[in-house]
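Thread title: Can someone regenerate the structure for this chain?

I was given the following input by a collaborator and told the matching structure tokens would be attached. They weren't. Posting the sequence so someone can regenerate them.
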Amino acid sequence: MKRTILAGMLTAILMFSISNFLQAQSKPAAPPRYKDVVVDNPNAEADLKTVGDYINALVAADYDKANSYLANNYMGHGPSPKDSANRDQTIAGWKENAKTQLNPKTSFVSQTFRVTQGDQKGDWISVWGDYSFTQNGKMVNFPYQFTAHVTNGKIDRSGVYYDRMYIMETLGYKLVPPGQ
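Best answer:
Regenerated them for you:
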């Protein structure tokens, strides 16, 4: 009788252990904690200066200087998901804007961090700012958000977000629904 009870208890313990093991194996891994993925950027001052100087060079129409802050393989994205431009296209776009935008100005604050793993690994600078200019006698002022990835002192990718519709409406454009 003792053997039967002991065998039953051992079987129950074994089954419980196997069940717990299988449940543990089927649970998805917990996502990494913020402090394990995002840390201080050890190149903070230099990277903040690179991105700040790049933005200021664009606004000042110093395109050779702005170009010098971009990596050869630079790719910029935004403001919409379908917008992207390489280094030459980005500088050409700013040159085109300068033909109609008078007295451009920007003010911004920025911060930096390092991502230690995954697709976004590396040193990042986030910029929150305001950009203004005059075009056809109309003053345009809008907020923007620019995030840049810096590698070896060069910006190699970025994303910019701003409200393009607001700018167009401020300049007098009207949105006309289809069929009207």
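The chain has one domain: 40-170.
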